[in-house]
Specification:
The structure is a single chain. The chain is mostly helical. It folds into two domains: 99 residues, no CATH class; 167 residues, no CATH class. The chain is globular. The termini are far apart.
């Protein structure tokens, strides 16, 4: 009889490595949609809970900026953290209140004169006055007809006309109230982070594996340095641009030059979009307020020259390119955070991207993403 060839056991029992590779492939195939769902869940939470998330993010960024000052005051002069933090918060509140007081009154005065100037620029003053009077007469006739309808409905037992309006003033008051409440919460949380934030970070680091502790400390330290450096450099350069623009507006006779100087400095905190908005506003106010053509072009072109000089030559030399972000990423982040959180998100776009870039740089698995978005 012919001998049967020995049966290879591996043909009937595949090696365990193939099962493991199959499990790894299945798990990776499932992980991709799970990561996508997790990302969508995080974005939805950030959008819905913005009234809570925004004050927390503002407080964290502000504490990252002011924490080195608190540490320095304690190390060199033994000033308690509570005292230094309280003084810094009071200075911050006083600065915001003074800025609002300096801008509010001139801005309201110019806003009252703006419609007349814009109408004179577009179609002439007399024609626009006739149109406004026609609109007012139509509005009064509509109001009289609604009053008559309400009186007629009141005489009928089951016919009632209810007029309910929500004016822009009430909406503005609600928005202002919510904004002030969020700002107060952010300032209070900033104070506690300045006083006890380091202890919280130390307790968090102690609970992490030893291999990850150093990376966490590097993230916190680099975030503080980069945020402080970015805000210091951009604050000084924006102040210089604002002062120069205010002097230029005063020299050519624009109304409320202080307002335009402050606006020119503050809008530069929003890269690209802030500069474009300021140039458009300066062009409009110059065209509506001045009569000489060359004077109309001085303010917008002068601001464009100033911001270009600072943006292309001075800021890169001081700020450096070590943590610079690709302009495409900055532009996309401005639209993204603005869509998510509105004007506050636009202001926080670059500081948030700076912190995100620090985190990406310190985590080895995410370092390729850091190399993609870097300049």
């Amino acid at each position: 009889m012919d001998e049967q060839p020995p049966v290879n056991s591996q043909e009937h029992n595949p090696p365990e490595s193939s099962d493991e590779s199959r499990r790894i492939w299945v798990s990776s195939d499932i992980a991709t949609p799970l990561y996508g769902l997790f990302t969508l869940g995080v974005l939805y939470t950030l959008y819905v809970a913005h009234e809570i998330v925004l004050p927390i993010i503002l407080a964290v960024l502000t504490s990252l900026l002011l924490s080195p000052l608190v540490k320095k005051a304690y190390r060199h002069w033994r000033i308690p953290r509570m005292v230094t933090a309280l003084v810094l918060i009071l200075v911050l509140v006083a600065g915001m209140a003074g800025l609002g007081w300096a801008v509010a009154q001139p801005a309201l005065e110019w806003a009252e004169r703006a419609p007349e100037g814009i109408s004179r620029l577009l179609v002439g003053g007399r024609e626009i006055k006739d149109k406004i009077s026609k609109v007012q007469r139509s509005a009064s006739e509509v109001e009289k007809s609604m009053e008559a309808l309400a009186d007629e409905g009141a005489s009928v037992e089951n016919n009632t006309v209810v007029l309910k309006t929500d004016s822009w003033r009430s909406k503005l008051a609600t928005k202002t109230q919510n904004g002030l409440a969020g700002l107060a919460l952010a300032l209070a949380l900033t104070y506690f982070l300045l006083v006890s934030g380091d202890r919280l970070i130390q307790n968090l680091v102690r609970q992490m594996p030893r291999g990850e502790r150093r990376a966490m400390l590097h993230i916190v330290r680099d975030s503080q340095q980069e945020i402080a450096r970015y805000l210091a450099v951009i604050g000084i350069s924006n102040s210089l641009v604002g002062i120069a623009t205010g002097v230029l507006a005063w020299a050519i006779g624009l109304p409320s030059p202080v307002v335009w100087g402050l606006l020119a400095g503050l809008t530069r905190f929003v890269p690209y979009l802030g500069v474009i908005v300021t140039i458009v506003l300066l062009a409009v106010v110059s065209a509506t307020s001045l009569d000489v053509v060359w004077k109309m072009a001085v303010a917008p072109l002068g601001y464009l020259a100033l911001t270009s000089l600072v943006g292309f030559f001075i800021e890169p030399h001081i700020h450096g390119f070590r943590m610079a972000i690709n302009p495409v990423v900055i532009f996309i982040s401005i639209f993204f955070w603005g869509w998510l959180w509105g004007p506050v998100g636009v202001l926080l776009a670059v500081p948030l991207m700076t912190v995100i870039q620090v985190v990406l740089k310190q985590i080895p698995r995410l370092r390729p993403v850091y190399k993609v978005i870097a300049r």
